[in-house]
TrEMBL record:
SUPFAM superfamilies in the record: RING/U-box, TRAF domain-like
Native organism: Sula dactylatra
Coiled coil stretches, renumbered: 192-243
Zinc finger boundaries on the chain: TRAF-type: 101-144
Domain TRAF-type: residue ranges: 101-144
Protein name from the UniProt record: RNF41 ligase
Keyword S-adenosyl-L-methionine among record annotations: no
PANTHER family (alphabetical): RECEPTOR-ASSOCIATED FACTOR, PUTATIVE-RELATED (PTHR10131:SF157), TNF RECEPTOR ASSOCIATED FACTOR (PTHR10131)
PROSITE patterns, sorted: ZF_RING_1 (PS00518), ZF_RING_2 (PS50089), ZF_TRAF (PS50145)
Keyword NAD attached: no
């Protein structure tokens, strides 16, 4: 659907009206026959038809093109009233900038930001509404720290809320202790496996050293036996030398 022609100030050229809804073009597209339409209007028309609603020439979605630049410029220069005119907004601006204005218009109807509240309020009155909204939240005046809604004032009990908070803290603490316990056990298991591995390596090294020492003792005993034999041979040679 297009922009309501009643919102516009002054004369609007016939060529800037949608051939289907007869309002001022919104997000326009143009057929090869040069008739222009709102995008939503022509897409809806082509669901059930395959021709132009003005001259019945055959058209397809793929043949639709953006509006000619000069027509687009004429369209953007049109002046119109804000859609919130009925609520008191007196702004008149170009079609090119109307969307930006209406997104920020102080007279726009917007929902209350408090959860559960269904009130629609003018943007300019939002702060005043939030101050008295029955769904507004605030901290308990007794200092328990609980955030309450005005609608819950009669049901709020500080002792009950504090007990609930303590139970939650206790449960959280138990979970953290269990997590720390599991982490420590995991670390201990890892260290134990590491120590067993190192012990095995050291035991192998000790066995290797024992084997080396055994070989060295055997070599020493062989050397000592050879020395004794050599000494005996020297003594025998000395005796034979004396006899001679």
């Amino acid at each position: 659907m297009g922009y309501d022609i009643e919102r516009f100030v002054g004369y609007v050229n016939e060529g800037l009206l949608c051939s289907i809804c007869r309002d001022v073009l919104e997000d326009p597209l143009q057929a090869p026959c040069e008739h222009a339409f709102c995008t939503a209007c022509i897409h809806g028309w082509l669901v059930h038809h395959s021709n132009c609603p003005e001259d019945r020439q055959m058209i397809d979605v793929s043949l639709l093109r953006p509006l000619y630049r000069y027509m687009k410029n004429d369209l953007n220069r049109l002046q119109l009233h804000c859609k919130n005119r009925e609520y008191g907004c007196e702004m008149v601006c170009s079609l090119e900038s109307i969307d930006r204005h209406e997104r920020e218009c102080e007279y726009s109807q917007i929902p209350c930001s408090n959860a559960g509240c269904t009130v629609q309020i003018e943007r300019r009155n939002l702060d005043g509404h939030l101050a008295v909204c029955e769904y507004r939240s605030r901290e308990c005046p007794n200092g328990c720290g609980y955030t309450i809604l005005s609608a819950e004032d009669t049901q709020h009990n500080c002792v009950t809320e504090l007990r609930t908070e303590l139970e939650l803290l206790r449960s959280e603490m138990i979970c953290r202790v269990e997590e720390a316990k599991h982490e420590m056990e995991s670390r201990l298991d890892s260290q134990r496996r590491h120590m067993v591995q190192k012990e095995s390596i050291l035991q192998n090294e000790i066995e290797e050293l024992k084997s080396q020492m055994s070989r060295m003792m055997s070599d020493i005993r062989s050397l000592m036996a050879a020395e004794r034999q050599h000494r005996q041979e020297l003594e025998q040679a000395e005796l034979e030398k004396r006899e001679l």
